[in-house]
Specification:
Elements lengths: L1 H18 L11 H35 L4 H11 L3 H13 L6 H12 L2 H6 L15 H49 L3 H16 L45 H33 L11 H33 L6 H23 L14 H23 L8 H21 L7 H35 L6 H15 L14 H13 L1 H14 L13 H21 L2 H7 L4 H30 L5 H34 L4 H37 L7 H11 L11
Length: 713
Amino acid sequence: MKCLVIIPLLFTAFPLWAQGMKPSAFSFESKEAWLWLMLIIALMLLIAAVMLKEKVSALTSNYKKHKTEAYKEKLKEYTQQLNSKQIEQLLQHRNKKSFRNAGNILLIFFASLFIFLPGSLIAQTPEKPDASSLLGEGGIIITIILILIPILAGLILLTIKISNAINRQRNKMRLEEAAKLAEYLETLPDEEINDVLKKRKEALDYSLTHNELSGSEPAEDSRGLLNISQEPGMPIVAIKKKALPRPNIDPALSRLVLWYLGCAAFWLLFGTTIGEYLGIKFVAPDADHVSWLSFGRLRPVHTNSVFWGWASLGMLGLGNYIVPRVSNVKMYSIKLGWYALFFINAAVIIGSVCLMAGINNGGGEYREYIWPVMLLFGIGLALSLINYIKTIAVRTTKEIYISNWYMVSAIIFTIVISLTAYIPSWQNGLGETIVQGYYMHQGVGMWFMLFTLGIVYYFLPQQLNKPIYSYSLGILAFWTQILFYTLIGTHHFVFSAIPWWLQTVAIVGSGGMAIPVIAGTTNFLMTFKGAWYKIKDSYTLPFFLVGIIFYFTGSMQGTAEAFRSTNLIWHFTDFTVAHSHLTMYGIISFFLWACIYAVVPRLTGKEAPQITVGAHFWMALIGLLFYTVPLMYGSTLKGLLWLNGKPFMDGVKLMEPYWLWRAIGGTLMWLSHVFFAYNMYKMIKRTNEVDVKSSAIQQLEKDSSFISPAKSY
């Protein structure tokens, strides 16, 4: 528990401490760096040593028992616990007077041989790091710590190997124990064999007929309580549990939610189809020469359609379901929900056409829509906010559930952010640059992230069928995200003409974001405590788990990118592209998919094919890794190339293979969206197939004088 308290403090204090240093003060030539490195290694070794100590203590305790007189009593206890087959084998052995099998000796030999293998691995001496490299910069150190997470996993794996070796040693002792037991059984007197073991074998061989309680008559389900499926299901995929239809849902609200989610799925497929084409153009830049399809026009079409179309509509649709559920009342106005859907769809459609025609807001990232288009989106948000607040105001529950805190705050912040970004009075010079950083980062953190976390706080406990681990951690994450995230926009413009103190404030705020991220991740993972076994039977929980993992790694990566030393390398490279996909796709999209797969079957009573849900999950995850990891690696090399004064074209040539991986990963991601759209179709479509049983009943009710064709003759 002490470690859980110290770790968040380290994540918070270390960035602030590194920020106050000179650019080159933190390197492996300094004592502080070696002190931190030794502290981390010592902590890892301490944890491993404690775990191994417990195992060795148990092993030593068992070994000491071999030397005591009480061991003979244990052998007698083993004898009394023999089952029928073992007793029969023992009796046959006694009759034949055969020698004991010597195979145990070989097993003991191999077990003792393999136990010494991990020791040779531990004895290797690590190489000393090069003190003259760029690894001495403070921001680089934090990034290396994040990259060292797989190395920590390797240490854990090594600990498991050593633990397995200890288990082999324990098995060796058990084999020796088995040999002693065999010797003890060999020397048992015949009287004890006849009086004790033979009687025990007769008792063990007795079995019931298994119809003592039910009788011999066949079972009859006169009440219709049993529902036996005659379809065995697909043998190539694991059968998952079905979602139960949710009773007492307003049909009008269900229809509204499904329309939101259906439109969101359309914009996901549309936007990522554009993105797929852009990824191909990286490999084949001369694919077309049409102005409307140029990279500069299509790129904002891709980002804005997935931002304001896919993610925004998906979040608002799920919010329309959650707000009345946790408030225990009906939605204030279904009509306002439809109006909001209309305005947001109109904004994305008109905005996409304008961007392809070259009509934009002057190049501000994620701010490319001109203000009349964004006004339509803002009206949709305002209508949704009114609907949510009016619903919460008449709730029958005493408290406001945490999901409503997150979702209502997200809409309020987004309206404020949009007004700030589009009011023209300060849109000149440095003012526009500062506002752009504020808008761009708050759009991600205070709209998408804040709203999505509110959704997860409802659906994750629902899918696990247990309450959220800690309400207090959720409130801590809520307020600290509001405190720190609103400060960090200008870390996108480090080394610019923006005042140095404002850049430093953004960097400090980025370091402080470790608090809500660690709090939220801990809350979600601890909610899984005692319910990890449910993952194998669910097709929604894997999506939640991946989203939680990327929530931690992607957010901490953003903190690492904020430092001046790392910003110097990664800014203006494809690293930011990889990071944005790691967060917007790995966090937001995976969470939305998890919630959609959880709620739609409850509204429609129809499940998506499990094999296509699995294809969606694995293609999206593998595609994301293929997309981001090569880009991050290649962009780091590219940044170092620029620092060494190499020409720009050298960086372009360097990135060529990594852009190919980007296209491959993007293709897998796009294919996963095709599967998702198909799954949505299967869950939402109306069935036109005639139900024979229902039709027969309806005919009987319609015509009480119905005569069977067989009787008419």
